[in-house]
Amino acid sequence: MALDLHLKDPHLEQRLFRNRMLVAIVFVVVLLGVLVARFYNLQVVNYDDYRTQSDKNRIQVRPVPATRGLIYDRNGTLLADNRPSYTLAIVRERVRDMDGTLELIGDLVQLDDADVDKFHQRLQRRRPFEPVPLRYRLSEEEIARVSVNEFRLPGVSVEAELVRYYPLTQLFAHSVGYVGRISERELTAFTEEDVRRYRGTQSIGKVGLEKSYEDLLLGEVGYENVETNARGRVLRVLERHDPQPGSELTLHMDARLQQVATEALGAHRGSVVAIDVKTGGVLAFVSKPSFDPNLFVTGISYKDYSALRDSIDVPLFNRSVQGQYPPGSTLKPLMGLGGLAAGLIDRQTKVKDPGWYRLPNDTRLYRDWKRWGHGTRVDLTQALAESCDVYFYDLAHRWSIDGMHEVATRFGLGAKTGIDLPVERPGLFPSRDWKRGARGMPWFPGDNLNAVLGQGFVLATPLQLAVMTATIANRGTHYRPQVVMAVDGVEQPPEVLHHIEAKPEHWELIFEGMEAVVYGVRGTGKKAGAELGFRVAGKTGTAQVVGIAQGEEYDSEALKERHRDHALFVAFAPLEDPQIAVAVLVENGESGGAMAAPVAREVFHEWLSRPLEETAAILPGPVRLEKGGARG
């Protein structure tokens, strides 16, 4: 029987192949469909999103900080400049091993613990991909080391930036002030708008004009889109929006006058404030000792700050607006004018001065500084010239503290002057209500006698005394003191707060008395007018630092140097047409006539001996001058 064996079936094989081919084709078509769909999703549906993500890998938006506005004195001398500085910075997102990177950097440039600690603090408040400064003011040698090792330091760069520089160092530290790095407390207080405005900058005004005019000096930040490589190095700038530079400030202040006033104080601690009588512009503003503001710009070292903070002379303390001192006898012209206006005294009023004064029904003797007195009959002119305490004791006894308080406050005492500088203190001129509220005690007649001499509860800043003197000099026009004269060449008009009315003969009598202080036979301020070609009117003052028991004499030798009396002098000149008013305080100088008056004399000589055109300001368009350069 034959076997029917089918070892090969071509038809079956063809059908199987066709089926497999169809499955394969369907599978490939499905895969192609998925691929096309995915491609469509990537390239069409989500094109913008993925393009943006891609661009972020190579394109960065960098803030371009504005150039901080410059500050000039009235003659175009540069007081606050911007100078290039090289900073070592790190972008955190581009560094894999931060500790290793810092260790490597430490081998190339000098780093101390303070630099590293501050760097970690800045890391906490940075924006993504924002360079964080590690070291400021790199030397050329350090820059070269970092550049050679750039391939080992991904995310590390050396950036050039403009930092604040004060060419005259200590001379304007308390007026111009300084900028410093933005602190954690300041950053916490920032609004969203502040965060935007300060992008790209690490500095903010801390004190002085740098703080009070921060909004104008800062400028408006710009930005640029830059293309970078994988290491974060900038390859090209794709788009740029330029920043708006900060405003330029021109001051009433005069650098030469400031220098003269500073040198006139010598080694003494104290303050000198000079004011333009016609405008209220501050011509000189000295607080001594001072400090170098450049130390604070990029972060002061702990050692340097400790030296300033712990100094017994307190150089960081702005004596001109923060120092509250008993004004002493410098208030006597003001009290005399008030007594004239109140009808309590006149030109003919005379008081017997045996060297002491006694209130009715009181056994206490209120001593005159001159123990044997000033004569049998003392009038107002002599009382001012020789600083007779008894004359003003008698006036105070017949006057109410409320009347004295009203006069004092009209001339700017007991309240902030409103000067365009921060941290001003108000001083104090007491009243009945003040004592009852602050001390829980009634007002006593003896308090009047202390207040009229600028002692007891009375406190004033040197700036307040200068404003008071300028108001007397221009016969009652009370200007708000201003340091800034112009912004971007646009002059700021003087601001009159009010006008104090008094009879012409009363002003004349006060002027006569203040002139006699300097030129009278027994005047206490003769050194203020020595060898000048114009007349000066002034008033000396001495303020107690420690109390002296009744019946005891002041013994300078028995007191420590810092317990001795302060010396004060206020004055204006020329007498016929006052142009400048000056207040001088010499801490522990003891004698206003011997120590403070000569300082005022130097200020008057410097300012009023110049030709008229040299005292006029250069406006608009200040001229940049180097330190020590000629006047514009």
UniProtKB/TrEMBL annotation:
Domain annotation Penicillin-binding protein transpeptidase: ranges: 270-604
Compartmental location: Cell inner membrane; Cell membrane; Membrane
Topology versus the membrane: Single-pass membrane protein
Annotated pathway: Cell wall biogenesis; peptidoglycan biosynthesis
Residue ranges constituting the Penicillin-binding protein dimerisation domain according to the UniProt record: 64-238
Main location: membrane
This protein's UniProt keywords: Carboxypeptidase, Cell inner membrane, Cell membrane, Cell shape, Cell wall biogenesis/degradation, Hydrolase, Membrane, Metal-binding, Peptidoglycan synthesis, Protease, Transmembrane, Transmembrane helix, Zinc
Catalytic activity as recorded in UniProt: Preferential cleavage: (Ac)2-L-Lys-D-Ala-|-D-Ala. Also transpeptidation of peptidyl-alanyl moieties that are N-acyl substituents of D-alanine
Gene3D superfamilies per record: DD-peptidase/beta-lactamase superfamily, Penicillin-binding protein 2a (Domain 2), Penicillin-binding protein 2a, domain 3
Class of this enzyme: hydrolase
Cofactor(s) in the UniProt record: Zn(2+)
Binding site for Zn(2+): 353, 368, 374, 388
Pfam families linked to this entry: PBP_dimer, Transpeptidase
Cofactor note: Binds one Zn(2+) ion per subunit.
EC number of the protein: 3.4.16.4
Job description of the protein: Catalyzes cross-linking of the peptidoglycan cell wall.
Family, per entry: Belongs to the transpeptidase family. MrdA subfamily.
Annotated NCBIfam families: pbp2_mrdA
UniProt cross-references to PANTHER family, sorted A to Z: PEPTIDOGLYCAN D,D-TRANSPEPTIDASE (PTHR30627), PEPTIDOGLYCAN D,D-TRANSPEPTIDASE MRDA (PTHR30627:SF2)
Name this protein carries in UniProt: Peptidoglycan D,D-transpeptidase MrdA
Organism: Microbulbifer aestuariivivens
